[in-house]
Write a structure and sequence with these properties.
This protein starts with a strand and ends with a helix. The chain is built from six helices and 13 strands. The relative contact order is 0.17. With 263 residues, the chain is α/β, with parallel strands linked by helices. The strands form three sheets. A nine-stranded mixed sheet has the order 11-10-9-12-8-1-6-7-13, sandwiched between helices.
Length: 263
């Protein structure tokens, strides 16, 4: 098997995210960050395939320079290489320029059989990027995958659909997104983590490295914008003790229920 490319997104903890009314984008600058949970499942799936069928696992992410520390966690888990796409022009991208930038980098990497993404990110929750990458690269795709088999140049996956699942067989190269929780991601190996922190050389590509133009990427290349950011507060639960005989309690409960239904 040739190389496996895993798209990794670093996401903020959602409670730390605010809304920038000027740019109409989510402000993640003060949030604590982590690897997107479904992307950890994608990394694990790729490493398992590498252990069975050979090849290398290459992590690919787009974001600021501090993302390096999170990619090194993936290296410590067992990935072989990592590339960070980092340029101020990439900031504020919606799913379309994000997928375009990732797909362009994937073309530059080359020599791959499989591209694996998590089903969706916890900050946006759209799940559009895997399909868009497949369209940009003109590759077959399968989403919400829960198991993977490879045989003689074909990949066979089980994917969840409403009311059950289906089995899909595709030629490689292909793009898949894996379900959150499809596996148990391994812990980073301590020795590999030390090696990654001290010796691993992260590849960093900017807009010029990918031969992209500013109007194609980031906020300028985006088609969707957030107009409002509403913080929802769960309603407070109220308790009321109903006293009296069983008949009195039943009548009181009936009155309460009818009042709620009519409000």
């Amino acid at each position: 098997m040739r190389n496996i490319i895993v798209c990794v997104k670093v996401v903020p903890k959602t409670e730390d995210v605010t809304f920038d009314p000027v740019t109409k984008t989510l402000d993640r600058s003060k949030a604590e960050n982590q690897i997107n949970e479904a992307d950890k499942n994608a990394i694990e799936a790729a490493i398992v395939l590498k252990e069975k069928y050979g090849g290398k696992v290459i992590l690919l992410s787009m974001g600021p320079m501090f993302f390096e520390q999170f990619l090194k966690i993936g290296i410590a888990m067992g990935a072989d290489d990592a590339i960070l796409l980092s340029d101020r022009a990439f900031a504020g991208a919606d799913s379309y320029p994000t997928a375009l930038t990732l797909a362009t980098a994937i073309k530059k990497i080359g020599d791959y059989d499989l591209i694996i993404c998590g089903e969706e990110s916890s900050d946006a929750g759209l799940g559009q990027v895997p399909s868009q990458i497949a369209e940009f690269l003109d590759l077959p795709q399968a989403l919400f995958v829960s198991s993977i088999e490879v045989n003689d140049g074909l990949i066979k996956v089980k994917r969840s659909i409403r009311g059950g699942h289906e089995i899909v067989e595709m030629p490689m190269p292909a793009v898949i997104s894996v379900e959150l929780g499809m596996n148990q991601p391994r812990f980073p190996d301590f020795k590999r983590k030390r090696w990654a922190d001290r010796e691993f050389k992260l590849k960093i590509w900017n807009m010029k490295d990918l031969n992209l133009e500013e109007g194609m990427v980031g906020l300028k290349g985006s088609y969707t914008f957030v107009n409002r950011f509403i913080e929802t507060i769960p309603p407070q639960r109220k308790r009321e003790f109903v006293e009296g005989s069983p008949e009195e309690q039943a009548n009181k409960l009936y009155e309460i229920i009818m009042k709620i239904l009519s409000s």
